[in-house]
Amino acid sequence: MKNFTHGDESKLIIAFTLPVLLGQFFQQIYVFVDRMVVGRYLGENALAAVGASMAIVFAVISLTVGIVMAGTILISQYYGAGDAVNLRKAVDTLNVFLLVAGIGVTGVGIIFSDALLRWMAVPGSILPMASLFMRWYFTGIIGLFGYHTVAAYLRGVGDSKNPLYILVIASVLNALLVFLFIGVWHQGIAMAAVATVIAQTFAFVLAVIYLHRKVPLLRFRLRHLQFDYGMLKKALWIGFPSGLQQMLVAFGMMTLQYFINQYGINVIAAYTTAGIIETFCLMPALSFSMALIPFTGQNLGAGRIDRVKKGLHVTQKIALWCTVVPSLVVLLFGKEIMLIFNDSKEVAEIGRQYFLIVGAFYMVFTLMFNYSSILRGAGYTWVPMFITLFSLWFIRVPLAYFFSKIWQEKGIFMAIPVSWMLGMVASWIYYKSGKWEKKSIIEKPLMD
Q1: Range of the domain at 43
Q2: Distance, CA of 411 to chain centre
Q3: What gap in Å lies between CA 262 and CA 244, rounded to an integer?
Q4: What is d(CA 227, CA 89) in angstroms, rounded to the nearest whole number?
Q5: Taking a C-beta distance cutoff of 8 angstroms, is the pair 401, 419 a contact?
Q6: Residue 1 lies in a domain
C-alpha cells in the first residue's frame, strides 16, 4: 500500500505508475498477439469481425466499468483519512452492486448480440463470425468486472504492484491460449473469445485469493456484509458520471464504427488495427495520468492541495516525452507497423492515412486526460462527463458525419483530433478555475 500524502511527488507517481504501465503493456501485448494471430491465420474478415464486435462490447460494459472507478476514489479518500469503517462498508456495497451488474450485462450481451450487430450495419460477410465472437466474450464478463473491481480497490490504497502481477499472468495465459487455439490447433474465431474468458476468470480468482490472504480489510465476504444504500448512493453519485462518460465514449465509438462500416471490410480492418497500435502509443502517458486519481484523492482527503498541483506538473512533463516519440514512430512507419497484423497492402495504406491525420495530436489527448484525472480524483467526476459529452457528441460525431460525405473514411479520421483539442481546452479552463480544490467527498455532504 502506498501513502501519497508524504514524500517526493515525482518519485511516488513514478513508483506507482511503473507497475501500472507494465500491467497495461502486458494486457496490450495480449491484444496485439490476439489480433495478429486472428489477422494472420483467419484473415482480414475475421480481424474486421473482432473489431466490429469489440465496439459493441465496450458500449455494453462501459457504464459498469465507469462505476468501478468510484471504488478507487472512495477507497483512496477513506484510506487517506484513516476511516477503516467506511472503507469496509464501501467495499461490501460495491461488491454487491457489481455482481448484480455483471449478471445483467452478461444476459444482455448474449441475447442481443445479433440485433446489435445488424443495427451497426456490420457487413453480412462477417456478421456470423462477429456474433459468435460476441456471445462467447460476454460469458466472461463477471470475471472481467471482478478483476477490475479488485484492482480498483488495491490502487485506491496505493497498491499497484499486485494487480500488475495478476494481470501479467493472465495476459500471458491469454496470449498463449489464443496462439494454441488458432495458430496451432487451427480453431475458429470463437476460440479467441474463449481464451479471453478463461484468462479473465483466472485473473479474478487469483485476485480474490490475494485479498483473502493478504488484505483482510478489502476481502470479499458474505457474513457480516455491510451493504449500505447511502454508500451506494455516494458511489453512484461519484461513479455514474465516469460510467456515463465511458458510455458516451463507447456509443460515440459505436457511431464512428457505424460510419466506418459503410466503407467495407478493408476499412474496418484498418481502423481496428490502427486502434490497437494507437493504444500502445498512448499507454505510457495515460498510465501516468491514472496515477493522478488516487494521488489527488489521498491528498485532498489529507488537505494537501499543494501536492496535487505538484503532482500534475510532474505528470505533464513526463507526458510530453511519452507522446512525442510514439507520434513520430507512427507518422514515419505507420504502414510498416500495420503490415505486422495482416499482409493486405490496402489495409496498411488506410492505416497509414489514419496515422498521418491523428498521430501528431497524441499530446493533446494526454493533456486532456491529465486534467480530467485531477477532477475525478477530487470527486468532481461530472465535469469530465460534460466535457466528453460536448467534445464527442457535439464535435466529433457531427464532424465525422459531414466530413465523411466529402473525404470518405479520411473525414471520419479528421474529426478525432478536433474533438481532442476542444476537450483539452475545456478541461484546462475548469482546472484553472480552482473549483475542484474545494471538493472532498469525506469532508462535506454529498450534495449541497
Answers
A1: 9-438
A2: 25
A3: 27
A4: 7
A5: no
A6: no
Residue 279 grid coordinates: 493504444
Q: Is residue 2 part of a domain?
A: no
CA dist., res. 429 & res. 158, Å (int): 29
24 in any annotated domain:
yes
Digits of tens for pLDDT over the chain (448 positions)? 577 888 888 899 888 888 878 877 887 887 888 999 999 999 999 999 999 999 888 888 877 777 777 777 888 888 878 888 898 888 889 888 888 889 999 999 999 999 999 999 999 999 999 999 999 999 999 999 999 899 988 888 878 788 888 988 998 999 999 999 999 999 999 999 999 999 999 999 999 999 888 888 888 887 777 888 898 888 888 877 667 767 777 888 899 999 999 999 999 999 999 999 999 999 999 899 888 988 888 888 788 889 999 999 999 888 888 899 999 999 999 999 999 998 999 999 999 999 999 999 999 999 999 999 999 888 887 888 888 889 989 999 999 999 999 999 999 999 999 999 999 999 999 999 988 887 555 544 333 3
Asked whether residue 403 is domain-assigned, the answer is yes
> Residue 83 — left, alpha, or beta (φ > 0 → left; ψ -120 to 50 → alpha)?
beta
Q: How many domains does the chain have?
A: 1
Could you tell me the three cell numbers for 396?
466529433
CB 87 within 8 A of CB 215: no
Report DSSP state, residue 444.
S
DSSP state of 5: T
